[in-house]
Amino acid sequence: MQGGPSGVVVFTDRRVARGTLVDVVAGAVGGGVRWVVLREKDLPRAERLALAADLRAILAEAGGTLIVAGPDPLDGDAVHLPAAGPYPPPAVGLVGRSCHDTAELARLTTEHYATVSPVYETRTKPGYGPALRPDGLSELVKASPVPVLALGGIETAAQVAACVEAGATGVAVLGAVMRANDPTETATTLGSAFQEAATRVTGTPPRAIRRRPTREGLRPTVTTQGSSLTARSGHGRPQPSTATTGGGKQ
Question: What residue ranges do the domains of the chain occupy?
Fold first, then answer.
């Protein structure tokens, strides 16, 4: 697998999404996102596998990549692991890991990239921190043996720029896109901020993302309307659940 995540990387959370995950991700991809991390760890594997196939189809049409949170790549070749394990990482094409301090970064072995969090206070995990802020992010970027994605509470163009200036190769966002009234517009705004900041920092503009103009934007190539997956899994507005997704470190 060529390279690792960069630019705007979207983490999913169906509980806060304003539409189905398929629609929200399709909108974000239409706005230039090329990397998506599928969370939804509480779903039964069969439903999560079907959702991964749907999202992978959307991303493939745009030349993007789906990364799956956890050690099971769900028939793909890219995973994002929690700080706690497993060690050693599975032997797949792309491996990322969530890190929060220098000790966790020092444990990295064959991983290709790491997320560092929380950079800012986050509504998704209130009280989780303390926030690193750009200065703290910069220190961890310097300590990391692999490229770093900034994660946590990144919602504005100014925050994106600050993360890039701190050395992050990309910004991972969740609520900013999941809660957006218009995921395409939000993704475009954040992506433009990343490209502008990266150009200032490196002096070279990142590879331009070509968006295919269509009347409704980039849409999924798979049939999703009325699917049992949507009905049973709650891949839309928040659904009551006994499972927790925010406890502990990712």
Answer: 7-228
Whole-angstrom distance between the N-terminal and C-terminal Cα of the chain?
23
Tokens of 41: 């760890």
Task: Choose among 141, 173, 175: nearest CA to 160.
Answer: 173
Three-state SS for 99? strand
From residue 64, give the alpha-carbon distance in Å to each of 16, 24, 39, 56, 98. Answer: 23, 15, 17, 8, 21
Q: Are 8 and 173 in contact (CB under 8 A)?
A: yes
pTM confidence score: 0.82
Helix H, strand E, coil C: the string for 206-248 is CCCCCCCCCCCCCCCCCCCCCCHHHHHHCCCCCCCCCCCCCCC
What is the per-residue pLDDT for 243? 38
Could you please report the per-residue DSSP string of 30-85?
Answer: HTT--EEEE--TTS-HHHHHHHHHHHHHHHHHTT-EEEEESS--TTSSEEEE-TT-
7-228 CATH fold: TIM Barrel (3.20.20)
What confidence tens digit (pLDDT) does each residue in 106-124 have?
A: 999 999 999 999 999 987 6
